[in-house]
Amino acid sequence: MKTYEMDLRSGSLWKKIFAFSVPLMLSNILQVLFNMSDVAVVGKFAGPIALGAVGSTSILITLFTGLLIGLASGVNALTALHIGSGNGRDLQETVHTSLILCFSMGVMIMVVGIIFSQGILAVMHTKEELISDAVLYLRIYLLGMPALGLYNFGNAVLSAAGDTRRPLYYLLFSGIVNVLLNLFFVILCRWDVAGVAAASVVSQYLSALLILAVLFRSREGFALRLHNLRVDREKMGRILRIGIPSSFQYALFAIANLFVQTSVNSFDHVMVEGNSAAANADPLVYDMMAAFYTACSSFIAQNFGAGKRDRILKSFLICLLYSFLTGLIAGVGIYVFRYPFLALFTNEKAVVEAGIYRLSVMALSYSVSAFMDCSIAASRGLGKSVLPTVIVIMGSCVFRVVWIYTVFACFGTIQSLYLLYVFSWLVTAAAELAYFAVVYRKTAQRVPAEEVSRE
Predict the structure, then answer these.
(1) Contact 376/297 with Cβ under 8 angstroms?
(2) Is the pLDDT of residue 232 over 60?
(3) FRET label pair with 353: which of 111, 229, 257, 387, CA 20 to 30 Å apart?
């Protein structure tokens, strides 16, 4: 029988981290491209108002999905730890508890988001001509949150076991369905923003069903069984201790970015639409880099569970280098091809020129975020999540709000607004690197010498 899992505790780290991360990176790229197809179809076939409406919801969608991704990071770290230690009972209890938690979080986000979407968009000063379509798009999109919670759960479990290929296959299939439904709903049915939102919901439930089917059919220690579906309080506590701070981190980033979006909304609608088009580069680059953060957390957690301390630091440094180079190459590449990139989302020349303001600042900035995010992932792999979240709150989120009310308030230019990203990443990265160094030294002292890897 063909095996998809990978042993993260032995072999060349350079090769295994790369082999682990590439399918995950392709999955992330596909997910971004399929999401970008929503924006592209709306921008091309429904016009700039619909484009601006969908773009106005992007930070809220990032907020809601980030909560689910953060919770799944706790699932990933704890699952990898139990795989590394070989404790089958703890692994089973963790997996089944995690499924219930992730699904429940998805349902809660769906309900709360649908109820308060109108009010939140109004507080963000969403343009009057955009808000009705933005509310419609967001409410339909939120119907897919329970499915997204289940997919992120399954992806976290499989990646903890070293399997990043099957989530890629399922995402590819569901993404193709998403694109086809986008074209059908928008061009033929003329549903505009409702059409792309509905297509996203269908594809999310499809990908969730596919990944759950694998886990129920699996014979590995992390397999799902209906008779084992119950919440173990001790495991729930451990998952939440890692996952909730991580979710809180994503949420605070999104909340801080709400201030950014509100500041963008202070410009005319052309600048808002240009920002919406150019912002599609962000998830593309971030999610490519994020593949190495997942690898960092998974490799460190498995080797920490197995007592192989020498592979912990090596895993961190290799993942940091890979993610830095990915951000640098992708950011510069998008700027070099800025005109064809922005033309994917709009036919308006003025909107393209407005989007270039953002790309020109972000091109060299993305790579800096690797030092922050990779350090956070490494600490999470060692079971530390609370203090890294506090550091992010102070160094990145609070810093951004302060920047808006000082630097941006002083200069009032769109460039001065976009520069807050790189400066907040620099401040936060310095603190996160220092914290990981302290945690690693304490961890190395705690692991018995006889358990160190013998490669």
Answers:
(1) no
(2) yes
(3) 257
CB 243 within 8 A of CB 78: no
Q: Which phi and psi (to 5°) does residue 322 adopt?
A: -60, -45
The residues near 177 (Cβ < 8 Å, ≥ 6 apart) are 199, 202, 203, 206
Q: Compute φ and ψ for 220, nearest 5 degrees.
A: -80, 175
Query: How far is the C-alpha of 330 from the C-alpha of 22, rounded, in Å?
Result: 15
Question: Rounded distance, CA 369 to CA 376, Å?
Answer: 11
Distances in Å between the alpha carbon of 26 and those of 23, 65, 103, 169, 171?
5, 19, 25, 10, 10
Query: What is the percent of the chain where pLDDT is above 90?
Result: 40
For residue 173, the Cα-to-chain-centroid distance in whole angstroms is: 20
What is each CA distance from 315 to 10, 24, 421, in whole angstroms?
Answer: 12, 17, 27
- Cα torsion at 16, 18, 20, 25 (round to 10°)? 180
Q: List, for residues 8-55, the tens digit of each pLDDT value.
A: 777 889 999 998 888 878 877 776 676 667 777 887 777 778 878 887
In whole angstroms, give the CA distance from residue 326 to residue 286: 9
Look-up of token digits 């179809």: 41
Asked if residues 303 and 311 have their Cβ atoms less than 8 Å apart, the reply is yes
40 in Cβ contact with 121 (< 8 Å): no
**Measured torsion, CA atoms of residues 270, 272, 274, 280, in degrees rounded to the nearest 10:** -160
**pTM of this prediction?**
0.75
What is the crossing angle of helices 310-336 and 13-45, to 10°? Answer: 30
Q: Cite the beta strand spans of 80-239 per DSSP E.
A: none
* pLDDT tens string 421-453: 999 999 999 999 999 999 998 875 555 433 333
User: What would the pLDDT profile of 256-288 be if each residue is shown by its tens digit?
Assistant: 777 787 788 888 778 888 888 888 888 789 888
Nearest to 24 by CA among 280, 295, 377, 321: 295
Quote the distance between the C-alpha of residue 67 and its chain's center. 9
Give the residue ranges of DSSP H helices in 265-309.
269-278, 281-305
Mapped to the 3 state alphabet, what secondary structure does 52-66 carry?
A: HHHHHCHHHHHHHHH
Encoded amino acid at 102, one letter: C
Closest to 171 (Cα-Cα) out of 147, 204, 139, 199: 204
